[in-house]
Amino acid sequence: MARPKKKTKKIAEMDPSPLNPISEEDVDSLRQDIQSFKLLRTLHVPDYAGEMVVTRDDQYLISPHRNNFKVWNLRTGELLHTVEEGPEGSRRGVVLSRDEKTLYVAGGSEIYSWDFPSLKLRHKSGKSPAEKYVSKVRPHFGDGPLDHEDEMCKEGMITSAVLDPYRQRLHVGRNGYGAMSYWDLTTHEWSSSNSFHGAGGGLRMTNLLTTRNNEILVGQYKQSRYRVWQLCPAQRDLDSFDKDYPILLHCIGQDDIERKSQSKSKSKLVDYWTTSNDGQVLYLAYFGGDYGNADIEQWKIDGFESLGLMQGNEPGIHAMTISPDGKILATGNEKGDVRLWEPSTRTELFNAQLGAWIVDLKFSADSRLLVASVYDNTIQFWGRPGALD
Q1: Cα separation of 386 and 389, whole Å?
Q2: Tens digits of per-residue pLDDT, 286-345?
Q3: How many Cβ atoms are within 10 Å of 32's Cβ, its own excluded?
Q4: What are the DSSP E strand ranges found in 323-376?
Q5: Which residue has the higher pLDDT, 193 or 57?
Q6: CA-CA distance, 45 to 17, in Å (whole number)?
Q7: CA 103, CA 285: separation in Å to the nearest integer?
Q8: What is the DSSP pairing of strand 79-83 with strand 69-73?
Q9: Which of 323, 259, 328, 262 lies closest to 296 in space, CA to CA?
Q10: Which residue, 367, 347, 345, is CA-closest to 19?
């Protein structure tokens, strides 16, 4: 594979956080601005959408469903395409290339790619190596969009996918033994090994996430264990790029959370999580439930130090995202509550009831619009007046 061209790193600004707090005046101004948030549009779909994608130009919204995915005009709400062909179980594996000219959909044990936005099918990966059936990972409880709806799931079934643009790879998390592998976007072949350094560990990898600049990758395993990798050199000095990277930076275990947490909740099991755009802060939403409030705890990733708690949440947070400008953390729970927070002061700015389990939340690229996938088969658009203009 051709070596990536050398690039000069563009230094990103730090997100607002306890590591980079904003003034009280700025918090008050943000609160007044957020108070104008209201429901702007509702789309009705045959079945709920999974983890959605908004393009950087705020022109398209991509919503994955059980047997298809849809492409919408973000501003007008017009349905532009419904694509029936694709891998099974693709509610959590929709990824755009860095130039947003290729769309990848990962699910089951396959990856499909299309030209975007024309949606001309380009490649099918073929099945990944693991095909063995095993019993499902955990029992179904309650009514909600859990990621294990079938009676059986496959060992090796893809649970999440993220882009590594520096190596032209699509890393995927899979059921079974914490396995993480990749599909080469140049050769269109699966990797011969099941994981790169530090990706194993005998646990099921449930989710992968990269920071907005694609420099840091975080993998979550069952039982609240996390591993953090650096995908590329900090200064883009690529002389030893292939040999040295990715670098495993941190391993975080449940015992670390129990020992260092400021939360008084009896349960520190994690329902959902995300990272700041700059990759410096990890947000963990605890289970709560019968054990108390569902605290959200901010952690400094380097050294794994607790930075504080966002308290007063209802249990069952299953959606969480940070706006592209880093000023707002949005959370959604299984009761339909959406809350907006200012991260650096942990101040709640806004809350609304959307009617049913919140499956996913995504901000528009300009941070003015919040799109919510709701389990009642709706996609709701919330924002300031004029956000859809």
Answers
A1: 5
A2: 886 555 567 899 999 888 999 999 987 777 888 999 999 999 999 999 999 999 999 999
A3: 10
A4: 329-333, 337-342, 347-353, 358-363, 369-374
A5: 57
A6: 36
A7: 30
A8: antiparallel
A9: 262
A10: 345
